[in-house]
Every structure is written in structure tokens, then in C-alpha cells.
Write a structure and sequence with these properties.
165 residues, globular, 5 strands, alpha+beta, 2 helices, 16% helix
């Protein structure tokens, strides 16, 4: 009986320790499809005059997230600052008091983005980065839970830049 209790206790400790987040906030792992499935999905994207964007919210930063061309690997994506002179970012409505969602609620959402890289650079003082500017003209939500971005071992931290290709 003692052996059963000891094994049960050790198993419980093991399970609970694996559930704890060591990332300092957010999901400890982003899970999602296998690498082969992800590569096949990207390879099957239709060509067109649009981009694929993944919202990447980190507290107190001003960058928007990663943007890539269709059929291009996420490792070739660019972390961008959004120029909202033509269209506001998807999570901006919450800043106007409409709805109960917070700024950055859409972290890790995947979007079809319309617009273009302007060729200009913008400075994000909170992350101390000079990033390419993307002029947003429209968007569609593609997936609210697409899983990992660069690797199945990605760890998201809402308080620090942790997802880097």
C-alpha cells in the first residue's frame, strides 16, 4: 500500500511540474502540428497579392508580429511595425471601449494581411529594435490557434521577446 501511495505521489509531482510555466507568462509551449504538416500547409498556400501574419504580443512593446509571403517559411518572416494610416490593427477596437478584449488579445492569431512593406524602418523603443514597416490595408483571420511559429519547442513569454527565428 505504501508503495502505491509513493508511486502515486511521485507521478502527481511529475505531472504538476510539467504543467508549470517556466516562461514567465503565457503558454509554456505552443504545441500545434508536426513539422511535416506545417511545411505541407505552407507549401499549399495559394499564390497571391497578400501576406501571412502572425500576431506576436509582448507587453510594453510596439511591434505587431511576424509577416511573411505566401509559401514562404516562417524562418524568412520579418518582425514588423505596423503603419495603421490606412487600416487599424485587428485588436485596436478594444482600445476604443468597444468590447471587453484587451490590447494584444489576438497574440498568436494567424492573419491573411493585405498591404505592403513600405521600405521604411520604424523604431520600437521598448524592445530597442529598428524594424521594417508594413502598411496595413486589410486583414482576415485565418486561425485563432495555429500553434508554434518557428519550432515545435517554441516557448511564448508575454513579458519578453522569446520567439526569434
Amino acid at each position: 500500500m505504501r508503495l502505491l501511495l509513493l508511486v502515486s505521489t511521485l507521478f502527481s509531482v511529475f505531472i504538476l511540474s510539467n504543467c508549470a510555466s517556466s516562461s514567465g507568462g503565457g503558454n509554456p509551449s505552443m504545441s500545434g502540428p508536426s513539422i511535416d504538416v506545417r511545411n505541407a500547409t505552407i507549401a499549399a498556400e495559394p499564390r497571391g497579392n497578400y501576406f501571412i501574419g502572425r500576431r506576436y504580443y509582448v507587453e510594453k512593446t510596439r511591434f505587431w508580429g511576424y509577416v511573411r509571403k505566401p509559401r514562404q517559411s516562417w524562418s524568412k518572416s520579418k518582425l514588423v511595425m505596423m503603419n495603421e494610416s490606412k487600416k487599424k490593427n485587428p485588436d485596436r477596437f478594444s482600445e476604443n471601449g468597444s468590447g471587453d478584449r484587451r490590447y494584444g488579445f489576438d497574440s498568436n492569431y494567424e492573419y491573411k494581411l493585405y498591404g505592403r512593406f513600405t521600405g521604411e524602418k520604424a523604431y520600437d523603443p521598448n524592445s530597442n529594435q529598428i524594424l521594417p514597416e508594413f502598411l496595413l490595408t486589410g486583414y482576415e483571420v485565418l486561425d485563432k490557434d495555429p500553434g508554434w511559429l518557428f519550432s515545435p519547442s517554441d516557448k511564448y513569454n508575454s513579458k519578453a521577446l522569446s520567439l526569434i527565428p
